[in-house]
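Researcher: I'd like a candidate sequence for this fold, 548 residues long. If you have to choose between options at a position, lean toward the conservative one.
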């Protein structure tokens, strides 16, 4: 079955202007937009345009491009009227844009996150070098009249750099580090094995494995609930004495108090920080008094080249979007047409939830296969994209949505296969998703989940080769065991002792007395220690907790 590309969203259909009139773009914040002459477009650059003037002029434009100064809120969108179809944000952050309001009005929001990739990577390496040689310490003492030559730094050559997060910026850091004769090992469970090989980077399956082997550590991962405080007191203690730590990614990935403590105790030789949880950091912040710490004021994107790229890139993406190409830089996903939503709404929700479950069961897959069984009420192509949105969630700097998910999947080396089966033996329709990743010794590892829709409510129907029926909501504990009495009772007693309530249950088995699987929906999650205790029950073969 060959699927067409995702349906082109309604907001990018021609506006009310004359079909021969040029499409108009207003740039209201200061930037370097590059060339302003493009056939079929009229681009007006008015850097630092006063808000009242922006509100007055905007109804005559098809697109608006901003930086961080202009607030794209409900007032601005109401003033724009029906003609505005695209908002472009020069740079990464979109905190000044009301994404929900734009989506409801069918307005596409774009950004240009790649523009600062090289600049951010080079700053991370600058911090690495500065900390390794005590540059900021020596600079401060020399200016104070102290000619102190006692500090002994360390060379980078023939040492090992650990990278947490091998996305765009982490990949550039790896490339540049190898030029400095560093060996590179990285941990990123969401990146397929083939990318590590392509970059010449060794893969660490766990963070603990990486921490125990490296001389230098740098983080380049998005800030999520999973990565907040990822490098804390325990992780810093696992590093070699005299290691160097750099955070030029997001404030909060490295615990600030723990980092300051490791520097004061002398466990770390030095550190470099470009980002803080609260910016600017308050006077008296623990890190500002830490020894051998190089600090910058969130300067990752602050180079002349990055600023020039960001203007040209966001202008190019906005012009492409106005012509129907929305594959790059989409931050939100304007609603599908009402008819598609009416027919496929429940399946879109199902696909995203199946993807979210699979990314927790088997991250870093190199292949994702979607099989549609039965007769669907409409072309199910958007369900494939929704599944990708779920699988990529939390694993990339860009927020995946129905517009950019396929492009993000290609960037991560995730191949997509779609199959169609006219009949479903148990349900009128069923969506089955399987992901495959490289395992130890090159042997593939797979995980399979399936589901259907009752009315508009998604239901899980398959986990591995087992039939289940369960609402995919909240926390789901998936456990397998030999089909013998007592397993469910023992687990229920354990959960009850912790005060964890079971909201729902589904059982399945391959054959009587053989392998069995049961799933429990829980009102609350489990700590790592509690999950380890579940796995330690004698009759439990495996146990996984996922959150949908």
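Model: Candidate sequence:
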């Amino acid at each position: 079955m060959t699927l067409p590309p995702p349906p082109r969203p309604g907001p990018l259909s021609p506006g009310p202007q004359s079909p021969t009139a040029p499409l108009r773009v207003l740039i209201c914040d200061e930037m370097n937009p590059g060339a302003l002459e493009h056939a079929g477009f009229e681009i007006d650059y008015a850097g630092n345009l006063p808000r009242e003037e922006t509100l007055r002029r905007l109804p005559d434009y098809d697109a608006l491009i901003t930086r961080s100064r202009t607030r794209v809120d409900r007032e601005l969108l109401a003033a724009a009227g029906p003609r505005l179809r695209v908002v472009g944000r020069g740079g990464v952050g979109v905190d000044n844009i009301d994404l929900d309001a734009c989506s409801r009005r069918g307005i596409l929001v774009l950004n240009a996150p790649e523009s600062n990739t090289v600049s951010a990577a080079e700053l991370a390496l600058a911090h690495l070098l500065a900390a390794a040689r005590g540059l900021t310490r020596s600079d401060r003492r020399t200016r104070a009249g102290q000619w102190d030559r006692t500090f002994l730094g360390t060379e980078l050559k023939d040492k090992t750099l650990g990278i947490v997060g091998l996305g765009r910026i982490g990949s550039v850091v790896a490339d540049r580090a190898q030029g400095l004769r560093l060996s590179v090992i990285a941990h990123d469970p969401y990146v397929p094995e083939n990318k590590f090989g392509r970059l010449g980077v060794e893969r660490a399956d766990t963070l603990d494995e990486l921490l125990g082997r490296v001389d230098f550590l740098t983080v380049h991962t998005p800030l999520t609930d999973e990565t907040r405080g990822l490098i804390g007191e325990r992780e810093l203690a696992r590093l070699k004495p005299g290691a160097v730590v750099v955070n030029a990614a997001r404030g909060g990935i490295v615990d600030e108090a723990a980092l300051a403590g490791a520097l004061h105790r002398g466990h770390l030789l030095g550190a470099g920080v470009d980002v803080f949880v609260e910016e600017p950091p308050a006077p008296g912040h623990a890190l500002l008094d830490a020894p051998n710490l190089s600090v910058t004021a969130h300067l990752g994107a602050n180079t002349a080249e990055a600023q020039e790229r960001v203007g040209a890139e966001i202008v190019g993406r906005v012009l492409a979007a106005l012509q129907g190409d929305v594959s790059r830089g989409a931050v939100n996903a304007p609603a599908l047409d009402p008819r598609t939503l009416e027919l496929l709404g429940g399946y879109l929700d199902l696909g995203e939830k199946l993807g979210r479950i699979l990314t927790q069961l088997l991250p870093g897959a190199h292949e994702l296969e979607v099989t549609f069984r039965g007769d669907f009420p409409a072309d199910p192509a958007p369900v494939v994209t929704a599944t990708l949105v779920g699988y990529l969630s939390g694993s990339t700097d860009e927020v995946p949505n129905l517009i950019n998910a396929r492009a993000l999947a290609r960037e991560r080396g995730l191949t997509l296969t779609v199959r169609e089966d006219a009949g479903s033996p148990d349900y009128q329709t069923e969506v089955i998703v399987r992901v495959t990743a490289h395992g130890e010794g090159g042997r593939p590892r797979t995980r399979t989940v399936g589901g259907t829709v009752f009315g508009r409510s998604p239901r899980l129907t398959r986990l591995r080769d087992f039939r289940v029926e369960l609402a995919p909501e909240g926390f789901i504990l998936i456990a397998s065991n030999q089909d013998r009495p007592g397993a469910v009772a023992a687990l229920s007693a354990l959960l009850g002792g912790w005060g964890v309530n079971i909201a729902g249950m589904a059982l399945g088995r391959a054959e009587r007395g053989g392998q069995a699987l049961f799933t429990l929906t829980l009102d609350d999650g489990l700590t790592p220690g509690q999950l380890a205790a579940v796995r330690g029950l004698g009759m439990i073969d495996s146990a996984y907790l996922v959150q949908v």
